[in-house]
Amino acid sequence: DRINGHPGGYVRIAGKWRLEECHPSGCLTDLFIQMAIIMVLKQTINNVFEFAGPWLCRWVKMNRSKKLQRKCAHCYLKDESEAKTGAELCENCKLRDWLSNYRLSDVDSFSLFNEFLEMVIQFSFTTIFVAAFPLAPLLALINNIIEIRLDAIKMVSLERRLVPKKTNDVGVWIDVLEAIGVLAVIANGLVIGVSSDFIPRLLYRYYYGPCANGTVTDIDCMAGYINNTLSIARVDDQNFHNEFLPHQMVTNSGLNVTFCSYKDYRNNDDYSLTPQFWLILAVRFAFVILFEHVVVICKFIAAWFVPSAPMQVKNHRLFDKLNRLKEELRSFEA
User: Fold this and answer.
1) Interatomic CA distance for residues 30 and 159, integer angstroms
2) C-alpha angle with apex 218: 262 to 284, nearest 5 degrees?
3) Residue pair 266/273 in contact by the 8 Å Cβ criterion
4) What own/partner pairs with CB < 8 Å and gap ≥ 24 does 235-244 have?
5) 121 burial class (0-12, 13-18, 19+ CB within 10 angstroms)?
6) pTM for the whole structure
7) Number of C-alpha atoms within 13 angstroms, CB side, residue 179?
8) CB burial string 187-217: b at 16+ within 10 A, e below
9) How far apart are CA 90 and CA 35, in angstroms?
10) What is the C-alpha to C-alpha distance for residues 325 and 334, in angstroms, rounded to an integer?
11) How far apart are CA 104 and CA 148, in angstroms?
12) Positive or negative, the Cα torsion across 170, 171, 174, 180?
């Protein structure tokens, strides 16, 4: 409302187009719908295309490639273990595994980049907008349980074998995830403190509402909250007539509209912002700063207590290194 203006004084781009406003129920409703589409529909479509692409490529290559001519008993057997021991293999049998692997989808050193990127994007949506869509972690878990099996089938049956390389961690992706974690704390603080009605409702309950003095016990503390958040626009204002057509100021029953209410904290006379607005704004930013500091401190404390690699894995690496050093010493002694 601060950006879009008010009835009779809407902000327009190039003096023509009004800025889009949030739904009366709040801006979180639009974000909730977008997150539901991303976490359900988009992830499902990505899994289908990610699996169907290599499968179709393999099917096309198998149909286009020339089949080997059968020349020995092994060629007629579905399982090589059923062949007689000591039987000589023909050249077709020796090349069969090579050809079957060649027909699979090609891979390179950047083949895992898209896999990491997909997980990082999912982690970003799940953590940054979890306050607006609490089901995101559950949907991400269900998607990953399904996708880990699809990726296993794809890497084993639909793609060529990856060349293994030794590494200590996932590289720069750790720094990316760390940055996303800090950004998620700030974003969730802004969503809760600025975009939602958490702060206005809290202030009304304890400062502006019927329970502000702490003596009323037989009434709902949130009674009158809706009316408190509404301001009045006068129809007799000339600027109001410039924004709306004449038929828009008449109800369906034929009554002329004398005033209308809109969600904002403004004076009814000159549309200036009320002291309640500035108090709510100050408390919003104070909450964001406090929330961000507390959660970031808790995050770094948890990261300090939880090691990047389990102690069992570290001990296994050390024992493996010790055994290799012993073998090298024996080789030198021999």
Assistant:
1) 40
2) 40
3) yes
4) 235/259, 235/260, 237/8, 239/8, 239/9, 240/7, 240/8, 242/8, 243/7, 243/8, 243/10, 244/7
5) middle
6) 0.72
7) 7
8) bbbbbbbebbeebbeebbbeebbbbeeeeee
9) 57
10) 14
11) 20
12) negative
pLDDT in tens, the chain (334 residues): 567 777 777 777 777 777 777 776 777 888 888 899 999 999 999 888 888 888 888 788 777 766 655 555 555 554 444 444 545 556 666 677 677 777 787 887 777 888 899 999 999 999 999 988 999 999 999 999 999 999 888 888 888 888 788 777 788 898 999 899 889 999 999 888 888 888 999 999 888 888 877 766 678 888 888 888 888 887 777 667 667 777 777 777 777 777 788 888 888 877 788 899 999 999 999 999 999 999 989 988 888 888 777 888 888 888 999 999 988 888 887 6
Q: Could you tell me which of 303, 307, 285, 306 has the C-alpha nearest to residue 295? A: 303
Please state, in angstroms and rounded to a whole number, the distance separating the CA atoms of residues 238 and 9. Answer: 11
CA angle 82, 83, 87 (to 5 degrees): 165
Residue 259 tokens read as 């005033």
Residues 84, 80: Cα–Cα separation, whole Å: 9
Nearest Cα to Cα of residue 53 among 122, 153, 126, 148: 153
Question: Which sign does the torsion angle of CA 15, 17, 19, 24 carry?
Answer: positive
What letters, b where the CB count within 10 A reaches 16 and e where it falls short, cover 52-87?
eebeebbeeeeeeeeeeeeeeebeeeeeeeebeeee
Q: Is the Cα dihedral 152, 153, 156, 161 positive or negative?
A: negative
How many helices (H) and strands (E) are present in the chain, helices listed first? 11, 6
Q: Do residues 74 and 87 touch, judged by C-beta distance below 8 A?
A: yes
